[in-house]
Write a structure and sequence with these properties.
CATH class of the largest domain: Alpha Beta
Oligomer: single chain
Strand content: 5-15%
Number of helices: 14
Distance between the termini: 51 Å
Order of helices and strands: HHEHHEHEHEHEHEEHEHHHEEHEEEH
Structural class: alpha/beta
Number of domains: 2
Shape: globular
CATH architecture of the largest domain: 3-Layer(aba) Sandwich
Largest sheet: 7 strands, mixed
Number of strands: 13
Bound molecules: 4'-deoxy-4'-aminopyridoxal-5'-phosphate
Length: 389
């Protein structure tokens, strides 16, 4: 029996970019001591106080079908947080609770394009972006960026590809590069979006992980609220990756359609998870800072370790839990470098190629191991690159 082109075409090259990660996991399962600096997952679990709230909610009866758009208290808490952080008036009617940012990426793209339409995204990109776009029958078109320009999307690159496109997906703070889009970049992006009459899908799941500069939500820029959908999540800000709780912030009419979609697909997010999210958000910035702190600290370690060497060059890590290293001086691709580092030193990092053509010759190091182990692994990586250079 034949399956649809939309589902068989999600990974046209047969690679999902996760090969090194899967190999490292298999080696770890077989008993090897692997330092895993691969996926974006905290080395701490969800805070025990949040787990207690989840338990209380479940035992209190929040185990049935929950309101499809999200429970009122969570829609209100997300709206208040977004309004406080951006200054844009935002109410519960602007918020749709989703089973994670990933589902929000899918739903927002479904909302903006019909099969055959073009959806733009920035390269390097979070691994799943082109697959999300292809799974909807949309045509993914990458906006190229360069490491020399800190992987910032530039107006000319967007203009050259935007004719007839429906949407542009951006992500700041950025996975995989650690870049943050400053006001100039975002003004230019917003200008292009307005002039080409695009929807802007702004993935802001790392908005609490900012190490230098500031996070600006493009929904706050002039005339952008009506054409922007912001994607948020409890995953990174509150170490709740497994709880699958995120959201889309958009105009109320957009939210209305997203509710129809959710009613016919996911049917909402478990109530006890949502109540735990309400509790977590009520803890305010203190808890968010506590969750972000280990990455801030390790980013300091990265800066110290990389000083005075030129085997690898770091893209300035301004936000998110990653540092992107240029390993082109070794003459190896990112993939070959990552494979050899795993085989010879039992350290797993992600090849830049997993994140698009523009990250070739780089590796992404997730700052997700305990400090001493992380520092030792990074020193080994640098020495290994030095031997090859
Ligand atoms: N966007 C980006 C940039 C991500 O890195 C991730 C997860 N790694 C997601 C979205 C999805 O996150 P979640 O579904 O856990 O909210």
């Amino acid at each position: 029996m034949e399956l649809s082109r939309r589902i068989t075409g999600i990974l046209p090259e047969g690679s999902d970019g996760w090969e090194v990660f899967i190999r490292a996991r298999a080696m770890a399962d077989a008993g090897h001591d692997i330092t895993e600096l691969t996926i974006g997952e905290h080395d701490i679990g969800t805070d025990p106080a949040i787990l207690s709230a989840m338990d209380r909610a479940a035992r209190g009866g929040a185990t049935g079908y929950a309101s499809v758009p999200g429970i009122p208290a969570l829609r209100r808490a997300v709206a208040d947080r977004v309004a406080a952080r951006t200054g844009v008036p935002t109410g519960p009617e602007n918020v749709m609770i989703m089973p994670g940012g990933q589902a929000a990426l899918f739903a927002s793209h479904l909302a903006v394009g019909d099969p055959g339409d073009t959806a733009l995204y920035v390269d390097p990109h979070y691994t799943t972006y082109p697959g999300v776009i292809r799974s909807l029958g949309l045509n993914p078109v990458a906006i190229p960026t360069t490491p020399e320009d800190d992987f910032q999307p530039r107006r000319a690159a967007i203009d050259a590809r935007a004719d007839g496109a429906k949407s542009l997906l951006i992500n700041s703070p950025n996975n995989p590069t650690g870049s943050i889009y400053g006001r100039d970049t975002l003004d230019a992006v917003a200008g292009a979006v307005r002039d080409h009459d695009l929807w802007l899908i702004s993935d802001e799941v790392y908005d609490t992980q900012v190490w230098s500069g500031e996070h600006i939500s493009p929904r706050a820029l002039p005339d952008m609220a009506a054409r922007t959908m912001v994607i948020g999540s409890m995953s990174k800000s509150h170490a709740m990756t497994g709880s699958r709780c995120g959201w889309i912030v958009a105009e109320p009419d957009v939210i209305g359609h997203l509710i129809n979609l959710a009613t016919n697909t996911t049917y909402g997010v478990p109530g006890f998870i949502q109540e735990a999210a309400v509790f977590a958000l009520a803890q305010g910035a203190d808890l968010e800072d506590k969750v972000a702190e280990p990455f801030r600290r390790r980013r300091g370690l990265v800066q110290d370790i990389l000083k005075g060497q030129n085997a690898v060059r770091a893209i300035p890590a301004r936000g998110a839990m990653y540092v992107m290293l240029d390993v082109r001086s070794t003459g190896l691709s990112g993939r070959a470098f990552a494979d050899r580092l795993l085989d010879t030193h039992a350290i797993a990092v992600m090849p830049g190629e997993s994140y698009g053509k523009c990250a070739a010759g780089h590796v992404r190091v997730a700052m997700t191991a305990e400090d001493d182990r992380f520092a030792a692994a990074l020193k080994t990586l640098v020495a290994f690159a030095g031997e090859l250079s």
